[in-house]
Amino acid sequence: MSNTTLWRGVIPAITTPFTVDGQVDHAFLAQHARTLIDSGCTGIVPLGSLGEAATLSFEEKLAIMRTLVTALAGRAPVIPGIAALSTDEAVRLAREAKALGAAGLMVLPPYVYSTDWHEMGAHLRAVIAATDLPCMLYNNPVAYKTDFSPEQIAELAAEFPNVQAVKESSGDVRRFAALRTLLGHRLELLVGMDDAIVEGVAMGARGWIAGLVNAYPKESVKLFELARDGGADAAAELYGWFLPLLRLDTVPKFVQLIKLVQEKVGMGSERVRAPRLPITGAERETALRVIDHAIAHTPVL
Question: Which member of 37, 141, 246, 276 lies 3.0 to 4.6 Å from 194 by CB, making a disulfide possible if both were Cys?
């Protein structure tokens, strides 16, 4: 699969479903992934921030990849997030991902440890070089306390032909222009924050690693297509309805909130893995007001 097709369209950062006793719910995971693809999504990204990957064991990550590759059976690519506490474990995860049939990798900085480009760059190089799979760099300084500048990304793109894309989640839409200035169309640009999708597409992004898509797949695909084909004006009405929900993707408890939306619309369960806990109290009431309003005014596509 070429980089042109691999990194384009709406690619859900799929949530990890759990059973009542806290195990990964593989049956629902497979069903949910197929539902997302049936709704027009173009691939699946498991094991990301939204997938609670930092709470999953190495073996659980392999099992999730295995389930998704089997469930999609070549219909759409599985592009797992590759992150770990150590570089060695991340390299092993990347190699296992290829062996299990992943089509590409989303390469993250290591968990917990944030440092300078000398060390972060060495970590990324080790993961990228571990396989020949196409790689998307994930820049999320808010979550990982590590910021990959456009110049640093350009450095890796010059060094590794299999670096094909960037998921940009800094919240600064100007990064897209900076990347284009440095790299032209060498890399595919993808939006990584739900509430910047229309702005990101206007700046040249051709893919969206989306979160609320787990609850509203058809609406997410439609919003992306309107922004891509008609621009901000064409997308304005649907974006206006969706934005209060999309903003739930950009706060510390985004996992709990997105899973709550999934449960409310019948697209999953709000069960999370500790240290996360379901939203409660006034925080829950505030979220439910947003969710219930959106449900009551869901547009007819």
Answer: 246
